[in-house]
Structures are given as structure tokens and as C-alpha cells.
Amino acid sequence: MILQSFKEISFKYVLPLTVISFFTVTQWWYALPVDGVDTLYWGFPFPYVGEGWHTSGSLQFFILEVLADLLTYFLLCFALVSGMHKWVPSITSGKLFVRSLRALAIFYILGIVLVLSVSNPVFNFKRPYEWRMIDHGLVFIWQRTPRPDHPGAQPSFIPSDSIK
Questions:
Q1: What's CA 58's distance to the chain center, in Å?
Q2: 128: helix, strand or coil
Q3: Mean pLDDT throughout 29-33?
Q4: Which of helix, strand or coil describes residue 44?
Q5: How far apart, in whole angstroms, are the C-alpha atoms of residue 72 and residue 58?
Q6: Dihedral (C-alpha) 14, 19, 21, 25: value to the nearest 10 degrees?
Q7: pLDDT at 152 over 50
Q8: Are 44 and 24 in contact (CB under 8 A)?
Q9: Mapping DSSP to helix (H, G, I), strand (E, B) and coil, where does residue 144 land?
Q10: Region of poorest pLDDT, from 30-44, 69-83, 107-121, 146-160
């Protein structure tokens, strides 16, 4: 009975909510990689995607961080849904609500597939370099990620008139 309830809760509510929350709210990280340029990363609690360096508009993905973030979101959604199911058992959801959750999750998955197909991504198992975080904040998918202006993030250049 408990296993059946676990499967039902997971497939009906938790998996769609995990996908929706994973792509809806995240954290941005403005960082300076070692021997690199200032770069924006996204992911909560671990940055799993960043701006690519090999071409404009490209992205770099870190598989280990994606898996850790997905597991974190799944556990948070499972705790939320099972807590609501335990403490407020009289709440029932109709087929329209469950189908809407699934449709929105599929829409988000198709959106990320589209982004992956046009962004020329690079996949790494783990971030292969060290970095110094300069700033961070939360962002929703519909918001533009701010690009902070920090003097420590830009490399210092030698003026051309001082070279003899």
C-alpha cells in the first residue's frame, strides 16, 4: 500500500513538479574562472550550466551538478507533496490538474531540448576548472539575468600608448 502510494505520488505530482520547479526558479552565479573571462552560471544549489567560451550563444553543461540539482529538487518536491498528502489528506486533485502539470512539464522539457539544439552546447562530467564567485542571486525563467559590473571581474588592460 505504501509503495503504491509512493509510485502514485511520484508519477502524478512529484516528477512534473520537479521539472517545472527545476526550470522555473534558479540561482545565477557571476564568477571569474581561473584563466578565463567573467562568466554567468545558472543552477540551484549547484551551478550546472554556464556561458560557453567556444562560440557566442553557446552553453556548457556540467552533468554531475545537473544530477545533484535534479535529486535535490525531486526530494524537496517529494517532501512537499507527501507532507501535504499526510497532513491534509482530504485534498484531492482532478484529472485536469494532473494533466495540466504533465503538459507544463512536457512543455518545459521541449523548451530545453530546443535550447540544446540551437546553442552548440559543451557537456562536461564535472566543471573542469576552479572559479571565484563574485556575485549571485535568484532568477525566474521569465526574468533577465543581471550582469553585475564588478571591477575585479574584468582583466586589466595595458593602454596601447604606454607600449614602446
A1: 16
A2: coil
A3: 88
A4: coil
A5: 26
A6: 160
A7: yes
A8: no
A9: coil
A10: 146-160
